[in-house]
């Protein structure tokens, strides 16, 4: 049975950011996947972050319709509307067929929970430990930056040029993916 | 620039866009400048890589938070 992320709703409504964190961790992959059809037209990461912040802001006024994962469905709608507005703001016509866009929205509404996977955690930690020093350092810095520090600044901290840092990050990601695949975990396949 | 150099440049842009850092701008949605420099195919690849990276980050985080989740929580704390 799919977990209902609305179990975090009372905490989120009371302003508990940790409760919102637990909700975010469960909802993010599905919300991101639902924006795939916009990937050529909008910066999905920017749209998603803005949609999640707006979700936090409107939670006090949110009323559940009694069905599970109501807040996820609200966040999907916010993200979807933001994407459409952004395409319009750029004065571009959506290059995607409207029927495909609608199908994408339908797909995003098939909420799939992101369950913690202890085996993945154990495997990826082993893979990380095998990374060469520079890619490992680039990955560590990205994690320490918590999405709040530009890559140019992270690169500067270890005396690298930004492009060198990004090449090391690219290498880290590829090596981790290959290591996981050898252990029987295909992340791209699992996330498609 | 050579074709190989162009490919390396595009790959670096893709990796940057696949990261979770985004500038904040209260006036409008703050896309990463590098996103605008990407080809349509590069933007799709950045999206695919971002999915993989967020899953990796969450798996490596003690609380299961990706960098996107961490960035949002920080922005809420700072508000």
Pairing-aware structural class of the strands and helices of chain A? mainly alpha
* Largest interface: pair, residues per side: A-B, 57 and 52 residues
Number of individual domains of chain B: 1
Global mean pLDDT of chain B: 92
Beta-strand level of the residues of chain B, as a percent range?
under 5%
Major sheet of chain B = none
Mean pLDDT of chain A comes to: 88
Instruction: Give the fraction of residues assigned to helices of chain A.
Output: 55-70%
- Low confidence ranges of chain B: none
Biggest beta-sheet profile of chain A: none
Sum up the overall morphology of chain A in one term: globular
Helix and strand sequence of chain B: HHHH
Total beta strand runs of chain B: 0
Q: Helix segment count of chain A?
A: 10
Uncertain regions of chain A: pLDDT < 50 for 5+ in a row?
none
- Helix-residue proportion of chain B: 55-70%
Radius of gyration of chain A: 19 Å
- Counting DSSP E segments of at least 2 residues, the number of strands of chain A comes to 0
Q: How much strand of chain A?
A: under 5%
Distance separating the two termini of chain B:
44 Å
Quaternary status of these chains? heterodimer
Account of the 3D structure:
The complex is a heterodimer of chains A (192) and B (79). Chain A has helices at residues 9-13, 17-33, 44-58, 70-89, 98-109, 118-129, 133-145, 151-157, 162-182, 187-191. Chain A has 192 residues and is mainly alpha-helical. In chain A, 38% of the residues are buried. Chain A is built from ten helices and no strands. In chain A, helix 8 crosses helix 9 (162-182). By secondary structure, chain B is mainly alpha-helical. Chain B has one domain. Chain B contains four helices and no strands. In chain B, helix 1 packs across helix 3 (40-60). The longest helix of chain B has 21 residues, at 40-60. Chains A and B meet through helix 2, helix 3, helix 4, helix 6 and helix 7 of A and helix 1, helix 3 and helix 4 of B.
């Amino acid at each position: 049975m799919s977990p209902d992320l609305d179990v975090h709703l009372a905490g989120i409504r009371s302003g508990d950011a940790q409760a919102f964190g637990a909700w975010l961790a469960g909802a993010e992959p599905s919300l991101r996947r639902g924006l795939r059809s916009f990937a050529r037209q909008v910066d999905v990461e920017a749209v998603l972050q803005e949609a999640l912040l707006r979700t936090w802001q409107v939670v006090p006024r949110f009323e559940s319709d009694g069905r599970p994962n109501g807040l996820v469905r609200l966040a999907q709608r916010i993200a979807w509307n933001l994407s459409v507005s952004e395409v319009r703001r750029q004065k571009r016509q959506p290059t995607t067929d409207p029927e495909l866009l609608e199908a994408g929205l339908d797909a995003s509404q098939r909420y799939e929970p992101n369950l913690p996977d202890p085996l993945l955690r154990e495997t990826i930690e082993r893979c990380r430990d095998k990374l060469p020093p520079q890619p490992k350092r680039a990955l560590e810095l990205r994690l320490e930056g918590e999405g709040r520090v530009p890559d140019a600044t992270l690169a500067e901290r270890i005396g690298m040029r930004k492009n060198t840092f990004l090449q090391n990050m690219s290498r880290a990601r590829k090596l981790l993916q290959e290591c996981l695949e050898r252990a029987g975990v295909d992340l791209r396949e699992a996330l498609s | 620039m050579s074709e190989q150099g162009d490919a390396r440049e595009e790959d670096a842009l893709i990796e940057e866009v696949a990261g979770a850092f985004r500038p904040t701008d209260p006036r409008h949605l703050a896309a990463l400048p590098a996103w605008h420099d990407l080809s349509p195919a590069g933007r799709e690849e950045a999206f695919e890589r971002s999915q993989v990276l967020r899953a990796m980050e969450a798996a490596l985080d003690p609380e299961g938070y990706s960098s996107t989740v961490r960035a949002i929580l920080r922005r809420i704390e700072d508000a």
